[in-house]
From TrEMBL:
Residues 1-72 form the ITPR-interacting domain. This is ITPR-interacting domain-containing protein. It comes from the Eukaryota. GO terms for molecular function: signaling receptor binding. PANTHER family: PROTEIN ITPRID1, SPERM SPECIFIC ANTIGEN 2-RELATED. It comes from Scophthalmus maximus (Turbot). Pfam families: KRAP_IP3R_bind.
């Protein structure tokens, strides 16, 4: 029997319950605050580098969008 078939929870609903994927237009609304407010103790995890990479990606994809309202860190 497939273990995945025993799991009845909707994966999308589970992620929403964990705070991911809310109907927010920007990145800061999709990441739960608990991941942003505290520095990671895992080696190699740097949130600032991630956010800068996201801003660069958004600049490439949407050069006409104002950066002013994107992130409110």
């Amino acid at each position: 029997m497939d273990v995945l078939n025993l799991w009845n929870e909707d994966p999308e609903e589970l992620l929403l319950d964990l705070g991911f994927g809310c109907d927010e237009p920007d990145l800061s609304g999709r990441i739960p605050a608990r991941f942003i407010n505290y520095q990671s103790q895992a080696r190699g995890i740097n949130l600032q580098v991630f956010l800068e990479a996201q801003e660069n990606r958004l600049d490439l994809e949407n050069p006409d969008v104002s950066r002013k309202s994107r992130f409110s860190w």
